[in-house]
Amino acid sequence: MSDAGHTRWEDDLAAYLLDALSADESRAVERHLEDCARCRERARWLRPSVEMLPTSVEQLEPPPELRERLMRTVRAEAAAPAAAAPRDAQVRAGRGWLDMLRAVPRPALALGVALIALAAVAGYGIGTGGDGTTTSTVSAQVDPALSGATATLERDGDSGILRVSGLPQRPGRIYEVWLAQGGDVRPAGLFQVDRSGRGAAAIAAGLDRAERVMVSLEPARGSAQPTTEPVVVADI
Amino acid sequence: MEPEDLQRLADEDLMPLVERKDASAFEIVYDRHGGPAFSLAYRIVGDRQVAEEVTQEAFLSVWRSGARFDRARGSVRTWLLGVVRNRAIDVLRREAGRAPTVSLELDTVPEQESQFEPTDAEALRREAGREVRGALGDLPEDQLKVVQLAYFGGLSHSEIADVLGMPLGTVKGRMRLAMEKMRATLAEGM
């Protein structure tokens, strides 16, 4: 290939390493790299330029609460990887929450929701952090169409862990957690479930300012606002 | 393995333990890289609370899928910071509902001195950061802008061309020149 031809690839390579190409353009660069030793060597040489960028930012001290929350979640999951599923179940009818949030009076959806965890068990300790922190398990409701699915929200002040089991894996889709208060719905994280249908999402903050925690199935990169009816609703 | 033994392990040797759900190994990984991760998240999202959420989500995703780390493709730190950057850019895009904006100032984030004496590692990290900022500061303004918009703003080259009102080819050319110059500066410092 001529030098002029390679200048084009060299320009694209820099943009590629900076993650500034479209998906199609990135794939074209990757295909070219497979065949071009010169560009592979150039990519190897340039890569440290990108890797130095994160270290160029002013260094801040992360708040100790962040470490505490993170390790509490991690220790809890290490100690009990499988969520304990409450067995008591009670069925109640409900409206779709998208409708409720839009404040549009509509008949109750045909879809009911099963109240799968009735009791709020204050003071139920989780994890092995040994810091005396107490948490509470609050009620969650799961779409009864998902037979056998369960969900619990382990709340710890402003943060918590939502654990689910029995939810189906959906290729190309992802479960998204939402915090809702009045008509305000904020995204609070994404999670997948494993082949057995188990999954968990850490809610880093915001429960103090939320009335409900909900989960809906969204496109793979998540959504800014929910686009489907919830499969899990926990009133808090 | 005792915590003091874990402390002696390299990052790359801690990751298989993280994969096996060793919370103590994960804790060490966080202690080594949580600061740079939070700093990067804050640089991108510009809000401490959101930066905390981004950092927490990124580390939890690492905890839950440590198997995705591939030592053949770089260091643990590079991989971790890549996870943090992707999450932060996702948040920017999701919250803005459009391409994110980014400050064009080099030093928009004031360095916050800890109330504690920095550890040796922390002091080294800050010194390295200052050197890298110096290398970036040596870039011509037009090259610095395209790099910052791409890396910290998550903008594609075509979005950058729109923002700066310049041809796409010019944007890509400046990216290339900037990276070559940064690389040369790095080589000089070695």
Structure description:
The complex is a heterodimer of chains A (about 240) and B (about 190). Chain A has about 240 residues and is α+β, with helices and mostly antiparallel strands. Chain A has helices spanning about 5-15, 25-35, 35-50, 65-80, 95-100; strands at about 90, 115, 120-125, 135-140, 140, 150-155, 160-165, 175-180, 185-190, 200-205, 210-220, 230-235. Chain A is about 30% helix and about 30% strand. In chain A, α1 packs across α2 (about 25-35), α1 runs parallel beside α3 and α2 crosses α3. The longest helix of chain A is centred in the N-terminal third of the chain and has 16 residues, at about 65-80. The radius of gyration of chain A is 23 Å and the shape is elongated. Chain B is mainly alpha-helical. Chain B is about 70% helix and about 0% strand. The chains are: A alpha+beta (about 240), B mainly alpha (about 190). At the A-B interface, α1, α3 and α4 of A face α3, α4, α5, α6 and α7 of B.
Q: What about the largest sheet of chain A?
A: 7 strands, antiparallel
Helix content of chain B: over 70%
The rough form of chain B would be described as globular
- Would you tell me the structural class of the helices and strands of chain A? alpha+beta
- Which consecutive residue ranges of chain A, at least 5 long each, have pLDDT under 50? 82-134
Could you give the order of strands across the largest sheet of chain A? 1-2-5-12-11-8-9
Helix and strand element order of chain B: HHHHHHHHH
Number of helices of chain B: 9
Tell me how many strands of chain A there are: 12
Supply Rg of chain B: 18 Å
Structural class of chain B: mainly alpha
Provide mean pLDDT of chain B, rounded.
Answer: 81
Weakly predicted, low-confidence segments of chain B: 98-118
Element pattern of chain A in H and E: HHHHEHEEEEEEEEEEE
